[in-house]
Specification:
185 residues; alpha/beta; UDP N-Acetylglucosamine Acyltransferase, domain 1; seven-stranded mixed sheet; five-stranded parallel sheet; 5 helices; 20 strands; 29% strand; globular
Length: 185
Amino acid sequence: MSGSERQKMAAGDWYCCIDPELDALRDVARDAVHQHNTMPPAERGSLGPKLEKLFAEVAEGAFLEAPFHCAYGMNISLGRQVYLNAGCTILDTAPVRIGEGSMLGPGVHIYCAEHHKDLALRRAGLEIARPVDIGRDVWIGGGAIILGGVTIGDGAIVGAGAVVTRSVEAGATVVGNPARVLATR
């Protein structure tokens, strides 16, 4: 595909992350993250003002504890009453949607970027962005890692420390590395 690296990233095609336009977007996100993480909680409220403007969507009652980190912010959508505990990281090179009532424990990481397996292309900064979709009323335990291309169904539970490499059905409980089904509703 031709076009800018940002356009390739948004289209889900291979793109080069070493790019001035993408660098500038990451700088905007770093500034918003810094504001969120350093504001006194009483002034910050549920979400720092710059992050709230940067995110694709923030529904009523969404709350992010500090510290928080994201790559771009513009690809993150938070449903009503979503809660992210301290230390969450979202590398949102692709859309990340977190559904209403979902809770992420401390230190949960979501990684949308997948670097190229070919060493020369990886060194050149080639990667692909895969979206993450977390349904409604999902509970993700502390330290879990969610990889790009994963969908977690409504009401699912991801155990603390799990590494989720595949989609999770609604109502399922997954644990381990790689995450495997422990129980279903």
